[in-house]
Amino acid sequence: MSITTEITGAGVRLRAFRPEDLEAVAAGYDDPLCFRFLPPLPSPFTLAHAERFLSEGVTSVFAEGGAVYAIADPGSDEVLGGIGFDKVIPSRGQAEIGYWVASWARHRGVATAAVRALSAHALGTGLARLELLTHWDNPVSQRVALAAGYRREGVRRAAMPGRDGGREDLVAFARLAGDSGEPTPRLLPDLPGGELTDGVVTLRPAGPADTDFIVRLRSLPEVWQTSVPAEPPDPAQVAERCLRAPAQWLAGTRAELVITDVATGAPAGEIALFYEEPPTGQAMIGYSMMPAFRGRGFMTRAAQMVALWAFAETDIARLIAGTLPSNAGSQRVLEKAGFRREAYLRSRLPGPGKTRVDDVQFVLLAEDLLTEGPRLDG
């Protein structure tokens, strides 16, 4: 690859670090987000650490075939962050890109512009493949990867040493020299305005802050006994799932939402869409509700809002939902939401105590909902 002293991007300029950048580097790295997602970084990060980075760290990266640049404002030359690539494997034409953005420059598209600029240059002058690795709980970086034309490839287990002595999984993205560089399309886009509401209930994306509520909800016997697997929830697993929920949404595998009562703001239940078969346009929904909010039509409203969003904003054409034969309440919810009973699947699911249970399957098609329209009468 050809190493250049300056790369211009949309609203950013990538240039060499200079001695006068010392204080900006120290302040930029001495930040909670940098400490979280860059475990090898000393904490606190002092001027002495910054001086060593500028005098030794940058030189060592270039010596090993990589590159490091300051992300600067093209007008003021203010340091906005840093970016580069290392872990170069010449025989494969491969390297790993990484970056940081200072707290004073966030939420301005700096990272996306810088990653696009460096990626286009590196892949246009010799490299064949760039990898971008992020933590599960860093959806911001995952959005940057997708916006810069990277594709999610999977998860690298225990790829990064953590500050607590353990090891952490990393989500892997890659961009190839032959890729267009255009933003990677998403199977499940963001909700319009960040939530769905009909004035009675609101659906918002689930996240780490919802862990305690979801543990309480899934600990109800009538909930866990109809779940897969049919066993009481492990709080640690629920916490991990909530932590990873934003990343799963970005990956297009599932959209998990908390149902809240508009009148009180209290969480009432949860509903999730699982995009099981993108090639066939088929997805599944699952849901549960706290006892105090049952019988008020909340779940019917939630199911219809999820269906309307899925049919309008994604390529999903067919939604399925299953219930136990004895769960008359759930079947009424689905029927009121426009779903039609389609199949009785014997011994389809694992039940409590290594038993097998039957599954009654309901289906909603896009044309059914659009023809009949929403039915939010409770």
Automatic annotation (TrEMBL):
Name of the protein this chain belongs to:
N-acetyltransferase domain-containing protein
Under PANTHER family, the record lists:
ACETYLTRANSFERASE, RIBOSOMAL-PROTEIN-SERINE ACETYLTRANSFERASE
Top-level taxon of origin: Bacteria
Cited InterPro entries? Acyl_CoA_acyltransferase, GNAT_dom, Ribosomal_N-acetyltransferase
Q: Which Pfam families match?
A: Acetyltransf_3 (PF13302)
Q: Which Gene3D superfamilies match?
A: 3.40.630.30
- Domain N-acetyltransferase positions: 12-177, 201-367
